[in-house]
Amino acid sequence: MDKLSNLLFKIRSKIAFFPTIISLAGLVMAFAMIYVEKLGISDYLMNVAPSLVIDDTDTAKTILSTLIAGLISLTVFSFSMVMLLLSQASSNFSPRVLPGIISNQTNQIVLGQYIATILYNIFILISLEPKENEYQTPGFSVLLGIILAVLCLASFIYFIHHISQSIQVGNILTNIHARTKSALESMLKTQKNQSNEFPDTHTWTGHKIYKTGYFYGILNDDLLELCKKYDTKIYIHLFKGQYILDGTKAFYTKNNLDEDALDAITNTLLFSNEELAGDNYVYGFRQLSEIGIKAMSPGINDPGTALNTIDYLTSLFLELTKKWEFEFITSDDGNNWVKIKCAKFSEILYNVMATYRLYCKHDITVVRKLMQMLRTLANFSANDSHHKIIELEIEQLTKDAEKGIKNERDLSKMDADFISWS
């Protein structure tokens, strides 16, 4: 991540990103059409294709006023639907799915199209002058405003369809899974072109930082440049998503550096007052598990959704077993300059299983599904340390299930092959 991509990432996550850009485009288009009208495009079209030009000022004013009022109502209704969607997603699934819905490009583009058309029609309406013998009504601009309004109606129909689909839990789970898997695959692709060789860091000098917030990334290019400049290697002792307090020992350097160098290195570490998903794959595991646990609450009582989340988690865990426990920033010559701490497979698996065991240990179908996930991971993972971790989780799941499930027949089927009937 560099400075530009970091800035774009912050801006892109805001709901007003695309609406602002498209609205400005509508404003520019309005001024462009006013200028073109002064050049006489409507007068020319009156002679060539009179049916394309509205040649009555009062009619043009009525049409534009009606379109503006209607589009404002449509915009308010659409924004209300977005707010309702966010409220339902927060209460039914998890508040952490909101950033993904807010940053949905389709919703932003449709809302931006509404505002752009409203602005266009307002400025075209302002440009209308009292009717005179020598004055030609900007009929072509009015016609273009009508066309834009019709396109807004078509977009509204699509918006209704899209928003009804986006609130469905299956689509939410699919999007989270796709985004998390993409982040993991990107890291695995980078990992193939790297070595995991790095000097021992136990004797290196540790440095504290005096910032507070969630650590969400590094300006890789800037940090690599600093490493080369000061001829030192660095170990970042933070993992993405970690909340940092003042005085936290954040990184270690091989060589002793002055204060200016340490400040420059600290400035390459990115922090935020809120959790940002970005390319943090751990966030996806957390979102899926929270949705699954929420589905098992008495108020929602949807074990089918919990089973679906376990399917997606199984797929992601299979990818995670291939990942190293550390990330590296590597120069073009293949030399690892920076080593970055990551959340371990054992930690992520434990956090996921701990929550499911607590809230789902009484449900035999969910327990069997979790058991199937663990058995699948054990069969596909070639890492001996992973096998020990998985076997420990199987043991803990069995103990909790025996406490939560009293039916002997159910317990006898706990380790049997799971066949979904939903």
- Distance between termini? 42 Å
Strand segment count: 8
The average pLDDT is: 84
Look at the helices and sheets and give the structural class: alpha+beta
Q: How many helical stretches?
A: 16
Question: What is the helical fraction, as a range of percent?
Answer: 55-70%
Strand content range: 5-15%
> Which series of helices and strands comes N to C?
HHHHHHHHEEHEEEHEHHEEHHHH
Radius of gyration from the alpha-carbon trace, in angstroms: 29 Å
Q: Unreliable stretches, pLDDT < 50, 5 or more residues? A: none
> Which strand order does the major sheet show?
1-5-3-8-7
What is the overall shape? Answer: flat
| Main sheet characteristics | 5 strands, mixed
Protein name: DUF2254 domain-containing protein
Transmembrane segments: 15-36, 63-87, 108-128, 140-160
Pfam families: DUF2254 (PF10011)
Keywords: Membrane, Transmembrane, Transmembrane helix
Mind explaining what this structure looks like?
This is DUF2254 domain-containing protein. This protein is an alpha+beta fold and 422 residues long. Helix content is 63%, strand content 9%. It is built from 16 helices and 8 strands. It has helices at 3-12, 17-38, 41-48, 57-92, 98-102, 105-127, 139-166, 169-192, 220-230, 259-266, 281-295, 303-320, 345-360, 364-380, 384-404, 408-412, and strands at residues 205-209, 213-218, 234-236, 243-244, 248-253, 269-272, 326-330, 336-341. It has a 5-stranded mixed sheet with strand order 1-5-3-8-7, with helices on one face. Strands 4-2-6 form a 3-stranded antiparallel sheet, with no helix packed on it. Strand 7 and strand 8 form a beta hairpin. Helix 8 packs antiparallel against helix 11, helix 12 runs parallel beside helix 14 (364-380) and helix 13 runs parallel beside helix 15. It is flat and about 85 Å long. The model has no long low-confidence stretch (mean pLDDT 84).
